[in-house]
Amino acid sequence: MLSFAAFGLETLLPGGSGTSVAEVNGEEITPFALQEAITQQKRQLVSVLGDDIDPAMLDDDRLQPRALQSLIQRALLLQKSTALNLVASEAQVGKSITSIEAFQFNGKFSPDAYKSVLAGAGYTPERFRRAQAEDIVLTQLQTAISETEFATQAELAATANLIAEERDVRYLVIPESGLVSDGDLSDAALQNYYQQNEATFFNPEQVVVDYILLDPADFAVSVDESVVEEQYEAVKDEYEVAEQARVSHILLIQEGDESDAAYGQRVVEAAERIGRA
Q: Could you say which of 42, 57, 67, 163 has the lowest number of CB atoms within 10 Å?
């Protein structure tokens, strides 16, 4: 992990004079660059989380500190790369761009796809090439550091202590002959020993039980009878049901040409059928 403080962060100017949000060794970070970094972080979050993303994660105020920190770190690394005369050749930049799958069509680099994708992302070709060149230089710097063999002072001290370390050791040599029994170890002898000492090979039966102890006294609630009566009087109307009667009737209409006797007979027959039902 690089120590960015070693390169020298001169001033951090939130807001600043209106033309920069931070200054790193005299190099200004503009509000536009900060907003662009925030937008890039939003795109990355959306591409990873998709429709499941929490809108709060895309809040500018939430993303701004991390975006600004990334710009400061990038500026410091680029300044160190410049001091070390690290550069990216045109061939390296071109190879890096043409190898990006988003710019390819049918497995080959497509200038049209290149321009279209950049336009959608808000980049110009010149600006994107410059960003790619910076990325290549940063990769060179990180590779140079990570693949360089060096030891810190703490590692050197630990190694020296380990080499110069002395220990007093005591040990006991037990000859194998002292561990070998001269007795009979046949199957019959083992079976006989087991039968004579069978009890020592058994453990008492054990049961592991999980239980919950419920005491009615812990749940009982003392209620004053007068309070119960008052509550009942307050809500008793909700439990009272008005008396209701359900009546069913059958209406037999006497036809105009039907005699009273015939009508009466029909009523009697209907009553009998109802009685049998």
A: 163
Expressed as residue numbers, the domain containing 75 is 1-83
Question: Is position 112 within any domain?
Answer: yes
Query: Hey, what are 177's tokens?
Result: 């002959």
pLDDT per position as a tens digit, 37-81: 998 899 888 888 888 888 888 999 999 999 999 999 999 999 999
Backbone angles phi, psi at 114, to 5 degrees: -60, -50
Quote the pLDDT of residue 246: 81
Boundary of a domain, candidates 155, 187, 216: 155
Which regions in the chain score pLDDT beneath 70? 1-18, 182-184, 277
H-only helix segments in the chain: 31-49, 60-83, 90-98, 111-121, 125-146, 153-163, 187-196, 216-219, 225-235, 260-276
DSSP conformational letter for 5: G
Residue 273 lies in a domain: no
Report yes or no on 6 lying in a domain.
Answer: yes
Q: Tell me what pLDDT residue 99 has.
A: 92
Taking the chain, what is the end-to-end CA distance rounded to the nearest angstrom?
97
